């Protein structure tokens, strides 16, 4: 009996064919992308008009949509909503991440077993990028950062990384859709380095892949947003909110779930969205002051503002930009006084008159007042249950 047990034990240690096949799912070497491999031309054009990517299934998370998407930047704000919408229709989502393994952990619950696949990569290592893209037929680039750090500049994150992804997707030969998420207001003549880098990234992607789809969302509002959360936190901590330039700049904020829906709608169409640029703004235009009023109304605090002229705001934000790469330690990330965002908000940012919008994708965006901003009730002095909520006062018909 002991001899049989030992024999079985030795056999169990031998690699089986099934294990070998699992190891070959995500190749890391140049079998697909060797240095002597001929560079592929773009295959996106051949797929245009081929019909819907979604092939079969009931549409639920246990169906098979036919989409295998590599979502760069999936651990960010927009990423979690996009992954959730892709996963609930039965898509497999490959999630590249570069930090701790805890970073993509919350995403694994959004899909069926094995459908959300976190894969560690290095954005500066071309081979690791090819590995996470190897089995995909869709690539979505959400990578973006509105402030610089010691390690990553605006240009590297928002321009060169986007260009690199487009080049690798072109070489891949099996990418059916490439979606680049940029930013509303991006322009090569913008006073903001972030917006200039985003515009350069768009041009680089479309130069490599003319059939790529570019999404340009406005300021996004949602539970983890980087505008109204920061305002509410600042107002609760200091009992006032600084209004840079008087808060007269016009913006067109959009609900983050609508932006995710627009990306999914572009994937599910018959190819008509390929090669197009969409400007995704909400149904209402606000001034910064009016949006702050909505924030104060939701948290039920008396509005208190301090008007900060643009030159003074820039002077407050300047020291971080000057010292960023001169001191031997990392500096705090900017919140309210972000020099580049101050430059970006110096001009109005609204959807162009003749631009393609949500309507061209068959989506009616939500109005902000109501459920989209109700996450702000966490900042109420009496707690979230202090009185009735905003959505109980607003007719649900007004949400869309």
From TrEMBL:
Please provide, in alphabetical order, the Gene Ontology terms of the cellular component aspect for this entry: mitochondrion
Q: Where is the NAD-dependent epimerase/dehydratase domain?
A: 70-281
Q: Which GO MF terms are attached to this record?
A: protein-containing complex binding
Q: Which domain of life is it from?
A: Eukaryota
Question: Which Pfam families did the record assign?
Answer: Epimerase
Record InterPro entries = ComplexI_NDUFA9_subunit, Epimerase_deHydtase, NAD(P)-bd_dom_sf
Which SUPFAM superfamilies does the entry mention? NAD(P)-binding Rossmann-fold domains
Instruction: State the name under which the record lists this protein.
Output: NAD-dependent epimerase/dehydratase domain-containing protein
Q: Which source organism does the UniProt entry give?
A: Gossypium darwinii
Its taxonomic path starts at: Eukaryota, Viridiplantae, Streptophyta, Embryophyta, Tracheophyta
């Amino acid at each position: 009996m002991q001899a049989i047990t030992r024999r079985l034990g030795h056999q169990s240690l031998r690699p089986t064919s099934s294990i070998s096949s699992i190891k070959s799912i995500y190749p890391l070497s140049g079998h697909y992308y060797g240095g002597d491999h001929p560079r592929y031309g773009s295959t996106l054009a051949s797929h245009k008009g081929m019909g819907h990517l979604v092939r079969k299934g009931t549409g639920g998370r246990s169906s098979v949509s036919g989409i295998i998407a590599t979502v760069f930047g999936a651990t960010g704000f927009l990423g979690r909503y996009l992954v959730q919408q892709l996963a609930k229709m039965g898509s497999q989502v490959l999630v590249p991440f570069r930090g701790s393994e805890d970073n993509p952990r919350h995403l694994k619950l959004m899909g069926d077993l094995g459908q959300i696949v976190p894969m560690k990569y290095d954005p500066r290592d071309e081979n690791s990028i090819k590995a996470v893209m190897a089995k995909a037929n869709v690539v979505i680039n959400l990578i973006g950062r509105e402030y610089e750090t010691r390690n990553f500049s605006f240009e590297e994150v928002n321009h060169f990384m986007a260009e690199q992804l487009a080049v690798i997707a072109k070489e891949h030969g099996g990418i059916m859709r490439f979606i680049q998420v940029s930013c509303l207001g991006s322009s090569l003549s913008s006073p903001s380095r972030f917006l200039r880098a985003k515009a350069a990234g768009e041009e680089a992607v479309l130069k490599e892949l003319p059939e790529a789809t570019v999404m340009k969302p406005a300021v996004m509002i949602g539970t983890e947003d980087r505008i109204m959360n920061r305002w509410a936190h600042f107002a609760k901590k200091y009992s006032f909110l600084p209004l840079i330039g008087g808060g007269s700049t016009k913006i067109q904020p959009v609900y983050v779930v609508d932006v995710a829906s627009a990306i999914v709608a572009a994937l599910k169409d018959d190819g008509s969205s390929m090669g197009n640029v969409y400007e995704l703004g909400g149904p209402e235009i606000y001034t910064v002051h009016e949006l702050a009023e909505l924030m104060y109304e939701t948290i039920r605090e008396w509005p208190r503002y301090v008007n900060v002229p643009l030159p003074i705001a820039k002077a407050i934000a300047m020291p971080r930009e000057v010292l960023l790469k001169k001191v031997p330690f990392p500096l705090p990330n900017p919140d309210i006084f972000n020099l580049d965002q101050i430059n970006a908000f110096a001009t109005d940012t609204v959807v162009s008159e003749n631009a393609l919008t949500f309507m061209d994708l068959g989506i009616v965006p939500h109005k902000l007042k109501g459920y989209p901003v109700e996450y702000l009730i966490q900042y109420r002095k009496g707690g979230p249950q202090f009185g009735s909520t905003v959505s109980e006062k607003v007719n649900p018909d007004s949400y869309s």
